[in-house]
């Protein structure tokens, strides 16, 4: 078996939602590579309910320290301005710097039709998935620009990339992470800041909570897609060895793939003027053809 040699010695990384599942796997893996980790987790249920609990974050820190690593626990609210700022302040106070962040925290309430999602749930999900990621990056950004380097890993999902019935709010918010990733990558490049996203394919409490999935499928996923299989991808994006930014990578089950947003050539009017409504009906096959796809690097490169 090949040995993973990528190291992150001395780097300080904040990982939110790190008490269980994928976040825990990221934190353990980063610490094993020599990183100093701020393990953040509120300790609530997958849907965000329940009281705050130091237990999950503290247990991960204990695991890291028992293995000879360095970590500190936090139950700061990773959705709020004060909480995200306190995470960066804690990293700098404990370890003297902040080198990378993994905005992994999220909540999940599957199995609800679009019309069943009330405003309160939508606001809770928006707070952690979208605003939490935004605020965590915003809190770290001045430190990154000051030292001329920084690494950001955001977390999207296949639900955000491709849609998933019964998960309208989750899909909405995870899709937004893709645009944020590419925009921050463009703005961060002059400052040595790299921003990428992962779309994990892995067993977690969230996947277990997904309704309508046959038990045998869930069991197969538990066996074939452990959270630890995604962790090396996150580690690579936090290192200097993989010089990419603005990328979205689908990761899990022993595979990593690049996710692209593209446009097909589509149809044009013969005279260069506006198309008529009936043109779409008459040329629908040509319109939907994916031959000649292009993949713009920014909004300025669209066909």
Question: How would you describe the overall organization of this protein?
Answer:
With 303 residues, the protein is an alpha/beta fold. It folds into two domains: 12-259, Rossmann fold (3-Layer(aba) Sandwich), CATH 3.40.50.720; 262-303, no CATH class. The protein contains eleven helices and eight strands. An eight-stranded mixed sheet has the order 3-2-1-4-5-6-7-8, with helices on both faces. The longest helix is centred in the middle third of the chain and has 29 residues, at 119-147. The protein is globular, with a radius of gyration of 21 Å. It starts with 11 loop residues before the first strand and ends in a 15-residue tail after the last helix.
Descriptors:
2 domains; globular; single chain; 14% strand; 11 helices; 303 residues; alpha/beta
Give the SSE layout.
Elements: E1 12-16, H1 21-32, E2 36-40, H2 55-66, E3 70-74, H3 81-95, E4 100-103, H4 119-147, E5 150-155, H5 158-162, H6 168-188, E6 193-200, H7 205-209, H8 215-224, H9 231-238, E7 248-252, E8 255-259, H10 277-282, H11 284-288
Parallel strand pairs: 1-2, 1-4, 2-3, 4-5, 5-6, 6-7
Antiparallel strand pairs: 7-8
Helix pairs in contact: 1-2, 1-9, 3-4, 4-6
Task: Put the structure in a nutshell.
This protein is an alpha/beta fold. The chain has eleven helices and eight strands.
Q: N-to-C terminal Cα separation, in Å?
A: 46 Å
Tell me the radius of gyration: 21 Å
CATH topology of the largest domain: Rossmann fold
Overall geometry comes to: globular
Order of helices and strands: EHEHEHEHEHHEHHHEEHH
* Class computed from helices, strands and strand pairing: alpha/beta
What value does the average pLDDT take? 93
Characterize the largest beta sheet: strand count, sense, and whether it forms a barrel. 8 strands, mixed
Q: Which strand order does the major sheet show?
A: 3-2-1-4-5-6-7-8
